[in-house]
């Protein structure tokens, strides 16, 4: 079974600074997908960014980018120019090629400090 | 843009009662996923449907059942409720049952079992 590990339960960053959230995963599959979801205090789950394992290029969405290291099974999220609205729980998630449900990590609670 | 609709948003039940949660996917989405998120936990996959057929099953108790109807809406039926069933229940939909398709989450139904 696939597992997703987020080793940082809580992190904080000053507004306008950059922060990196870590995620590692374990899988025997060669083709899969990785996601970062954001869950603000409203509890709504919002997709931040998505990476396809067969693509070597790291995904980028505005201030959000990932560092995908397939051999190391690492998938970190970098948030640049942090904003107060980035305060949320961030979940790393895995989806296999043959079974499409999401397997989530335990989450990292990010606080952006004014 | 249309989003996933879940009803009710809040539900309070007594132990041993039954509950029915409803999910209306985004129009033209034919795949529905159900997740359970306990307090302070990451979401756990329960079950999914593609084209009205069960496509995958996760850690769903035998007391729970679900189905997807001809109009693609889905219902999660929970019987003999236990205190431990108190959680936020998310429904998510995707355009089709395919690896890596973005899952759009609804706002969730908060179930409290007393």
Could you name the key traits of this structure?
heterodimer, A: 114 residues, mainly beta, B: mainly beta, 7-stranded mixed sheet, 4-stranded antiparallel sheet, globular
Helix content of chain B: under 10%
How would you state the average pLDDT of chain B, rounded?
A: 94
- Helix and strand sequence of chain B: EEEEEEEEEEE
**Envelope shape of chain A:** globular
- Radius of gyration of chain B (CA) equals 13 Å
- List the total number of helices of chain A: 0
Largest interface: A-B, 26 and 27 residues
Q: Biggest sheet of chain A: strands, sense, closure?
A: 6 strands, mixed
Q: DSSP helix count of chain B?
A: 0
Oligomer: heterodimer
Envelope shape of chain B? globular
List segments of chain B where confidence is low: pLDDT < 50 over at least 5 consecutive residues: none
Number of strands of chain B: 11
Helix content of chain A: under 10%
Structural class of chain B: mainly beta
Structural class of chain A: mainly beta
Cα(first) to Cα(last) distance of chain B is 36 Å
Could you describe the 3D structure shown?
The complex is a heterodimer of chains A (114) and B (114). Chain A starts with a strand and ends with a strand. The radius of gyration of chain A is 14 Å and the shape is globular. In chain A, a hairpin with a 4-residue loop joins strand 8 and strand 9. With 114 residues, chain A is mostly beta strands. Chain A is 0% helix and 53% strand. Chain B is mainly β. Helix content of chain B is 0%, strand content 50%. In chain B, strands 2, 4, 5, 6, 9, 10 and 11 form a seven-stranded mixed sheet that branches. Chain B is globular and about 35 Å long. Chain B starts with a strand and ends with a strand. The mean pLDDT of chain B is 94. Chains A and B meet through strand 5, strand 6, strand 10 and strand 11 of A and strand 4, strand 5, strand 9 and strand 10 of B.
């Amino acid at each position: 079974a696939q597992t997703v590990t987020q080793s940082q339960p809580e992190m904080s960053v000053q507004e306008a600074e950059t922060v990196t959230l870590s995620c590692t995963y374990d899988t025997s599959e060669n083709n899969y997908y990785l996601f970062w979801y954001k869950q603000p205090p409203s509890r709504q789950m919002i997709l931040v960014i998505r990476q396809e394992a067969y693509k070597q290029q790291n995904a980028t969405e505005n201030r959000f980018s990932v560092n995908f290291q397939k051999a190391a099974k690492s998938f970190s999220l970098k948030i640049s120019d942090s904003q107060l609205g980035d305060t949320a729980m961030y979940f790393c998630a895995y989806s296999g090629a043959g079974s499409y449900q999401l397997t989530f990590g335990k989450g990292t609670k990010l606080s952006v400090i004014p | 843009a249309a989003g996933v609709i879940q009803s009710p948003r809040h539900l309070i039940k007594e132990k041993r009662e039954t509950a029915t949660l409803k999910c209306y996917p985004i129009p033209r989405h034919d795949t529905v996923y159900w997740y359970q998120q306990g307090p302070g936990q990451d979401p756990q996959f329960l079950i999914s449907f593609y084209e009205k057929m069960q496509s995958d099953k996760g850690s769903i108790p035998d007391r729970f059942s679900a189905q997807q109807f001809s109009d693609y809406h889905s219902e999660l039926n929970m019987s003999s409720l236990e205190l431990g069933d108190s959680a936020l229940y998310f429904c998510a939909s995707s355009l089709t049952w395919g690896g890596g398709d973005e899952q759009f989450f609804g706002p969730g139904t908060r179930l409290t079992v007393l």
